[in-house]
Amino acid sequence: MEQTTRKVTGAEAVIMSLLEEKVDTIFGYPGGAIMPVYDALYDYQNQVKHVLTRHEQGAIHAAQGYARVSGKVGVCFATSGPGATNLVTGLTDAMMDSTPLVCITGQVGSPLLGTDAFQEADVIGLTMPATKWNYQVTSVDEIPWAIAQAFYIASSGRPGPVVLDISKDAQFNEIDFKYEKCNKVRSYVPEYKVNDEKVSEAAKLIDSAKKPLLLFGQGVILSGAEKELKQLVEKTGVPAAWTLLGLSALPTSHPLNVGMLGMHGNYGPNIKTNECDVLIAVGMRFDDRVTGDVSNYAKQAKVIHVEIDPAEIDKIVPAEVALLGDAKKVLKKLLKKVTPNSHEEWLGEFKSCYEKEAEKVIDKDLFPTKEKLTMGEVVRRVGEQTNGDAILVTDVGQHQMIASRYFQLNKSRSLVTSGGLGTMGFGLPAALGAKVGQPDRDVVVFMGDGGFQMTMQELGCIAQYNLGVKMVILNNNFLGMVRQWQQLFFDKRYSFTEMQNPDFVALAKSFGISAQKVSERDNLDKVVQEMVEHDGPYLLEVVVEKEDNVFPMVPAGASVSNILLEP
Amino acid sequence: MSKEFIISAYTENHIGLLNRITIVFTRRKVNIESLTVSESAISGVSKFTIVVKAEEEKVRKIVQQIEKLVEVLKAFYHSNEEMIYQEIALYKVPTEALTKSNQIETLVREHNARILEITKDYTVIEKTGHKEETQALFEGLNQFGVLQFIRSGRVAITRSPIEKLSVFLEMRDAQLASLESSEETEELEYSV
């Protein structure tokens, strides 16, 4: 434990505490109530990088992107009032998707609390339901303790966002700085010890299964259990399917990886969920986009649920065997207990499902013969040119589903997307954060024309720091997913989904970012190659078919068995 | 089927805990019938006693969500039958009504209530019991005009001989200790 006795201001203590937590990057936006912290930061620029976004929402989404690809805690600064309220979407998103964040907001001086002071907002009240923990610091003495606890809570157990709201007087006052890392909070149990009896029960179920199916979610990535997952499926021969956020925990090309679950997932995993005899869910929470109609979901199967958060057990799908604990520790133990097996015939059924899906959907998406470009072929080409090694970032909507379905990923922590909350405007800032977190990897972000325009001001941030993000706008001049639903379920009444868009290429160029527009298949390979090889940020606008739909589709409220391959 | 349940939550005595807990109910549109918060037998630990009318399944999930809160030590739920519980009620009646006849005195006797204070103008009566009991006395007294009436939230204890929290805390400390030691042994395994 380092002992420092230098008297410092609370503001400087904030920065010193972050350094104690090995923070190398802060995303943020200054303003009145957090100015002392920013002033202190001025002297530490050689020790910690600060990325100035163009909006606080951009800062927090960038911090999320950074956290998701690096596995570290994302750190974000914002000022009081509007600065803090602009974080709320990102906090809710991070809460839903279990992303570790520590967000520090300035607050008005403590004597002014509750007086409707200038730029005062009830940040603790506002962020309570959107954070794993939050705390208002009004005394300088609490700063090191609060930051230590914030990092511990954000990163341990099931990760999540934490807000520290620090009043301006606490930032100005002085303390003798001393830092102690936090490793225990009395009222908080980050994870439970794995129950060996339950592991044996689960192993028995897996060994006796004729048609087992494993579903993996982001829990595998968060606990670093990728190796154990791969070993488990290989030893037991169990086909494995992923939730959206589980993507990249197992290479997409792995022979036992049978594809994506859920509303726009693959045909096989959805259909077979209602045919399997044992369902092994690892680090996933049975989101309604995965289950469809829960009353007709895997009723025939015995469910093994590997989960770190006790509140997820029996929340949606009752578990025959609930294995509470960290996924890596559980899988390690499970791996020792299961016997080697293979399920060739059962796996073959997934292959036939895939062939059916390929004929009806995939081939038309990836190798279209019609005149207009499809989103699928663009995703395929970008994927090919980046050799499956890129980090895939998406916004929300049709392109998100297409990109997740077709982009090939070989490495873990390679997908950054807003899964639980479905936050349009997430993509661009998350991509810049991902690039800061993994500067040596290619970062590709796919966006729709709608979502891009929600946070497009972050082009300014990307340009300022010359962040080599490859941005692909799949432009159909529509809010495509809403339009798809209007077509299928609202008699084609296209109520306010068509967009008049700016000249995206000119827009990018106005920020000094290279850009190109393509609408013909003949040029696609060439421009994609130019984009990938370009040194620095690059924006590619691809004009795609206006009224393409994403299939397969489990209609809202329908059973996964009723997945549609065509309208 | 909707039924009355008593939720007990042990929490750190921190600012905002009440808000954190009520948010769990608000989000699921569940009404709180009664709420009592005070320091528990363990210093620094608050006990929330919350009465709700809801389906058991819903109550179980609410308790899981409450327990998930970082500053909550433990939460339980019980049916009314599983707990011994009381509420306290205070009634203010005009003293004139008391002196006119012995009916109020009879009510006080019958309901096992007691008189806390008598002044020239008013008399304050106290009764503890279940809601139906405090309500019955209210109706009896109201024939003479109740000037003021207040009923507390519920307090409740389990029928089991010991306070569950202390047992739970011991179990959990053992859990955490074994978790730490299992990590150590795992590291040992690797280093071998």
Concise structural overview:
The complex is a heterodimer of chains A (567) and B (192). Chain A is α/β, with parallel strands linked by helices and 567 residues long.
Describe the structure.
In chain A, helix 1 packs across helix 2 and helix 3 packs across helix 18. Chain A folds into 3 domains: 170 residues, Rossmann fold; 153 residues, 3-Layer(aba) Sandwich (Rossmann fold), CATH 3.40.50; 173 residues, Thiamin diphosphate (ThDP)-binding fold, Pyr/PP domains (Rossmann fold, 3-Layer(aba) Sandwich), CATH 3.40.50. The model of chain A has no long low-confidence stretch (mean pLDDT 97). By secondary structure, chain A is of the alpha/beta class. Chain B is an alpha+beta fold. Chain B starts with a strand and ends with a helix. Chain B is built from 6 helices and 9 strands; from the N terminus they run βαββαββααββαββα. Chains A and B meet through loops of A and helix 1, helix 2 and helix 6 of B.
Assembly form of the protein: heterodimer
Taking Cα atoms only, what radius of gyration of chain A do you get, to the nearest Å? 24 Å
CATH evolutionary superfamily of the largest domain in chain A:
Thiamin diphosphate (ThDP)-binding fold, Pyr/PP domains
End-to-end Cα distance of chain A, whole Å, is 63 Å
Classify the fold: give the CATH topology of the largest domain in chain A: Rossmann fold
Q: What is the count of DSSP helices of chain A, taking H or I runs of 4+ residues?
A: 23
Question: Unreliable stretches of chain A, pLDDT < 50, 5 or more residues?
Answer: none
Under the CATH scheme, the architecture of the largest domain in chain A is 3-Layer(aba) Sandwich
Pair of chains with the largest interface and how many residues each contributes: A-B, 23 and 24 residues
Rg of chain B, nearest Å = 23 Å
The count of helical stretches of chain B stands at 6
Could you say which structural class the secondary elements and strand pairing of chain A correspond to? Answer: alpha/beta
Query: What fold name goes in the CATH topology slot of the domain at 92-151 in chain B?
Result: Alpha-Beta Plaits
The best one-word shape of chain A is globular
Instruction: Please identify, by name, the CATH architecture of the domain at 92-151 in chain B.
Output: 2-Layer Sandwich
